Amino acid sequence: MGQVSRALAAGLAVVALAAGAPAYAQPPGASIPGAPPGATRERLPEGWRLGDGELVWSAPGPVGAGGALIEFRSGKRTLGVPQASPDQRTFRLPLDGVEIGPVGELQVVAGTRRLDAAGTHRAPGERRLSAATEPPAPYPANPVDPGAAGKYRTTSGEYALEPVRLPGYAEPVEMRATVVGPTDAPGRRPLVLFLHGRSATCYQPGNDVPTLHWPCKPGYKEIPSHRGHLHDQRLLASQGYVTVSLSANGISSQDNRAADFGAQARSSLIRQHLARWAEWGADPAKAPGSVRATKPVDLSKVLLVGHSRGGEGVNRAALDSVSPPPPAEDGQRGPVSWRIRGTVMIGPTNFGQNPTPDVPSMTILPGCDGDVNDLQGQIYLDGTRGVGRGTALHSAVYMVGANHNFFNSQWTPGEAEGPAFDDAADETDPVCSPRSATRLTAGQQRAAGSTYIAAAARLFLAGDDRVRPLLDGSGLRAPSADPARVLTHAVGGNRTPAIGADAPLTVTNGRVCDQTATSGDRACLPVDSGPGRSPHFASWRGAESEPGRNAVTARWTGPGTPVRLTPERAFSLAGSDALALRVIVPPNTRGTLLDVAVTDTSGRRVTLGRVAVDGLPGSGMTASHWAREVRVPLKAAAAAGVDLERTRSLELVPRGGPGELWLMDAWGWRPGTPAVRPVPLPRIDIGRLAVQEGDSGTRTYQVPVHVTGKGSGTVKLAVLDPQTYVSTVRTVTVEAGRSTVDVSFAVEGDSRYDIDRDHQVAVKAVRGVAVGSAFGGVLAENDDPMPTITVTPVADAVTEGQKLVWRTELSQPAEVAIETRWDLLPVDTGAELSTKDVDAEWLSGVGDVPDPERPLSANGSSLWVQVPKGETSTEVSVPTVTDALTEPEESLRMRVKVYQEEGEWPDGPLLTGRVTDAPRR
User: Fold this and answer.
1) Distance CA 884, CA 887 (A)
2) C-alpha to C-alpha distance for 801 and 837, rounded to whole angstroms
3) Are 66 and 113 in contact, with CB atoms under 8 Å apart?
4) Separation of alpha carbons 267 and 251, rounded Å
5) Which of 375, 437, 578, 757 could be cross-linked to 722 through a Cys-Cys bond (beta carbons 3.0 to 4.6 Å apart)?
6) 202 within 8 A of 313, measured Cβ to Cβ
7) Cβ-proximal residues to 137 (8 Å cutoff; 6+ apart), any chain
8) Which run of H or E residues covers position 265?
9) Exposed e or buried b for every residue in 237-253, given b needs 16+ CB within 10 A?
C-alpha cells in the first residue's frame, strides 16, 4: 500500500533570523528526512538524491514502461510508487508524509527485481547458476490441436470513435481498435476481445527512447500496441471467431496515478466497446466498415484476453459485467448486453489479488517474465478457492522460456513500429539468456501463446471438452506450440476439495508453512532458499504478512518416512476418478518419487499409486517454485474396502534420496467441464475520504465501504498504521442486507504542525464475496501552520580548534521532525575553509574526505538540519582543527533553503562563519 498524502515532512518553513545576527546551521552529519538518528551519517546510495521535496532516483538508462509497479522501498517497507519522467530515466517520490528510514536500505523494485543494484534480476540471497538447465521432456500430443489454422477466409480493418472520459483521468482515452474476423462463417459468431498492457505510448522516429505522454507531442507517433495481437486474431478469425483488439494508450499514460493502477479504467474501456458492438448488432448500418465487413457477433459468447495490466483489466470487466461498480467510479453505465464466458490473462498483474471466481479463466505465466517477474497472475487461480461456487475452471499455463513482451509484436525488437526490447535479455542467466536451451524465440513464443488462447476460446466459447486436457494439468501438449514446453494445472471445474492448508490441519513429518513470510520457522520459502521464487506465494499489496495463506512443506533425508496430512474433518473423494495433487519440488530437480496413500475414518489404508515430480528450470531470474499437477487413480481404494466418502488422512511417502516438497492442495478429480453460470455475489468497493484533523478532541471517521448485491460472506481487511507503517489483517463478515462494512479511524485534533496521516485499508475476498475497488481509507490532513524557524549564532566567529555553533529554534513544537536544507557555497572574498580545516570524522559524515585539500564547498554538498518531533530547538556545530600554518582569516558561507508548499526551494538567508588562527605559544 503506497503512502499518499499532501503535506511534506521535510520543511514547509518560514525562517526568521535573529535581529542583526547572521546564522547558519549544519549538523555533524547529513541528516536525511525521516531517517533515524543512527542514519544521520549515511550518504544516499549512488543514483539517489533529495531535491524539491522529493526523493529522486536516476537510472543509468531508460527503464521500460511495463506492467509491474516500480516502487521505492526502505528494506521491506514500501515508501510509495514514484512518478516516472517521460523518458523513464528519472523517478520522483514526493516526501509527503513518507519517512525514509535508514538510507542504506533504499531500494527501487519492480515486482521482485531490484533496479538500483547490479544483478537486477537477483533477489537477496540468490545466486547465479553456473550450468544451463535442460527443458522438461515433452508431453504426449493431445488428439485435438487448437493451434491449427481454420477453414474460414478472414478480413481485417480498424475503427476509431470519439474519445471517452473516464473517472479520475484528466485526459480523454481513445476509442480505437483493430478488427479481424471471418467472412464466410455461418450465423452469428463468438467475439474475442484483446486488451494490451501498459507500455510506452509515443515515440519519435530516429529516437530509441519512447515516452509515456498522452496525447503524443508534436513530432511523435503513437505506439500501436493494439496491433500487436494480429497473429492471435488471424488464427482465431480463421477458426470462426470475430476478434477486436483495443488501444489503451490513454490509460497507460495515466494509470499510475490511480489507486488501482488502471483496473477500473480498463474495465470501463472494454465495456464501452462492448456497448458499441451491442448497438451495432441492433443497427448494423451504424457500424464502422471494419465491423460490417466481418460476420455479425453473438454477444452471449464473449472471451476477454488481456496482457500485463490488461489482464487485470479483463478480470475486472468480467466482474463488472455481473456486478456493476459504484456509478461514480464507472466509465460505462447502461445495460449489459453481453455475457463473458471466460478470460485469458497473459503475464498479468494482480495488485488487488481479487480474481472473479465464477468466470472460467486461463492465465499464461511466462517463465522468463522480466516485467511482472513474480508471476502474481497465479493468484487468479489460487485466489478463487473457496470464494465462489467452485465450478468455473481456472487454469495456469506455465510457459518455460517465454518473456513478457514477445506476446505482443509491437513490443518485440525487429517487428515493432517503435522502440522495443527483450525484457529477459540477461546473457548470464542459464534459463532465460537468449542463448540458453530453455529460452524461446519471439516466433516460438507467439505461436505457443496463440495456440493456448485458441484452446481457451474452444473450451470456454465452443464448449469443446477435447481441449480441456491441454489446460487442466492432464499432461498433454498441443503440437502447434512446439518446441515450447508448456506445463499446466488447474483448480475448479470437476474437482471437489479434499485438503487445503488454510483450514485446520495436522501434519506429521512436515509442517504447515506461511506463504507470505520470508524468514523464520513459519516461512514456506525463505529468501535464502536458492534460485527461483514461487508464484503461489506472491505477496499482497495490502500487507507484508497475510495470515491464512498456507501450504504444507516437508523435507526428508531418505525414503520411507510418510508425510501425513489429517484435516480437522474427514473429506469425501466419492464420485471422483482420481486424487489430484498440486506439488512443488525445488527447481532443477528430477524424479522426486512419492507413494500416495489414503486412510478412512475406520483406519483402512490403501496405497493408490506412485507419482514422479520434476522441478522447473530455475535461476535467480525465475519464479519457478511452481506446482506440478499429479494424479493417482482411486480404483485401488474400492478394491481395498476403503470408504472414500469418509477419508481421514492423506500420506505422501518419499521413495528415493533426500528431497523437499510443498503441497498446495489436494482434490478429487474427474474428467469433463461443468456448465458455469456466474451468479452475482455481494460486492465490496472501498473508497477514500479526506478530512481535516481539527484543533482538539478526537473524531471518528468511517471509511467509505460500499456493499451491493445480496448475500453474505467474509473478507480480509488490512489496515495500515500510519505511524509504524505496519498493517494489521483481520477477517470480517459481510452481513446480508447491510450496505457497508464498519471500518473506522479515530483522528486526534491538535494545534501542532504534522504531516498528513494516511489510514489505508485494503480488502480481499475470502468466501462468498466479490471485490472491486480494493484500496481506500481515510486521509487526515494537517491543518496547522508550520512553526517559524529561527536560526541564531552561538559561536560564528572562533579560533581554529573550536566549533562554529548555531542554534535552530521553532516557535512551537511539531508532531513531526522539522527539516530544512543548507547548501555550502563558495565565499565571496578572502580564504575559504578547506577540507583539512575541519574534523575528518565530521567531514566523512557529510560525504567528503580531506585529501586532496580543496575548498569546503567544492563538493557541492547540501545538508539537512532537523529539529526532532516534540522539541523546539537543536544545536549544530562545525568542528575546526588547529594546524601549524599561519593563515589569514578563513570562512564558510551557506545558504538556507526552505521548502514551500508549491514544491519549490526559494533562497533563504545567507550565513557566514569565520575562523582565525589560534594564538601561537
Assistant:
1) 9
2) 9
3) no
4) 11
5) 757
6) no
7) none
8) helix 263-282
9) bbbbbbbbbbbbbbbbb
pLDDT at position 908 over 80: no
Q: What angle do CA 378, 320, 714 make, to 5 degrees?
A: 65
Q: What amino acid is encoded at 670 in this protein? A: R
Strands 70-74 and 770-771: unpaired
Q: Which secondary-structure segment (H or E) carries 249?
A: helix 249-252
- 367-378 average pLDDT score: 96
pTM of the predicted protein model: 0.88
SS3 at position 634: coil
Q: How confident is the model at residue 894 (pLDDT cuts 50, 70, 90)?
A: confident
Angle of helix 263-282 versus helix 309-320 axis, rounded to 10: 60
> Are the C-beta atoms of 484 and 364 separated by less than 8 Å?
no
For residues 545 and 517, is the Cβ–Cβ distance under 8 A?
Answer: yes
Q: Which regions of 418-537 does DSSP assign to beta strands (E)?
A: 486-491, 495-500, 505-508, 511-514
* CB neighbour class for 49 (10 Å; exposed up to 12, middle 13-18, buried from 19): exposed
Cite the beta strand spans of 328-417 per DSSP E: 340-346, 361-366, 394-399
How crowded is the C-beta side of 842, counted as CA atoms within 13 Å? 19
Q: Looking at beta carbons, which pairs linking 632-636 to residues 24 or more positions away fall under 8 Å? A: 632/578, 632/579, 632/596, 632/608, 633/577, 633/578, 633/608, 633/609, 634/573, 634/576, 634/577, 634/578, 634/579, 634/608, 634/668, 636/606, 636/607, 636/608, 636/609
Task: Say whether 267 sits in a helix, a strand or coil.
Answer: helix
How far apart CA 438 and CA 446 sit, in angstroms, is 15
Residue 516 has, within 13 A of its CA and on its CB side, a CA count of 16
> Which residues, 6 or more positions from 10, have their beta carbon under 8 angstroms from its beta carbon?
33, 34, 50, 53, 95, 819, 821, 864, 899
Residue type, 766: V
Cβ atoms of 3 and 98 closer than 8 Å = yes
Q: How do residues 422-480 score in pLDDT, each as one tens digit?
A: 999 888 999 999 999 999 999 999 999 999 999 999 999 999 999 999 999 999 999 99
| Cβ atoms 634, 578 nearer than 8 A | yes
The CA dihedral of 391, 393, 394, 396, to the nearest 10 degrees, is 150
Q: How confident is residue 576, by pLDDT bands cut at 50, 70 and 90?
A: very high
Whether residue 352 contacts residue 263, with contact meaning beta carbons closer than 8 Å, is answered with yes
CA angle 614/379/255 to nearest 5° reads 130
* Dihedral over Cα of 227, 366, 344, 484: its sign: positive
Q: What is the pLDDT of residues 16-50, one digit of tens each?
A: 333 222 222 233 333 344 433 333 334 677 788 76
Residues whose CB is less than 8 angstroms from the CB of residue 841 and which lie 6 or more positions away in sequence, other chains included: none
Q: Which cell numbers in the block locate residue 790?
A: 529561527
What is the 8-class DSSP label of residue 184? S
Whole-angstrom Cα distance, residue 812 to residue 826?
33
Q: What is the mean pLDDT of the chain?
A: 89
Sign of the CA dihedral running 303, 308, 314, 319: positive
Distance, in Å, from the CA atom of 827 to the CA atom of 830, rounded to the nearest integer, reads 7
- Dump pLDDT digits (tens) for 683-731: 999 999 999 999 999 999 999 999 999 999 999 999 988 878 889 999 9
For residue range 469-514, what is the model confidence (pLDDT) as tens digits? Answer: 999 999 999 999 999 999 999 999 999 999 999 999 999 999 999 9
| Bridge partners, residue 495, by sequence | 669
Phi, psi at 65, each rounded to 5°: -70, 120
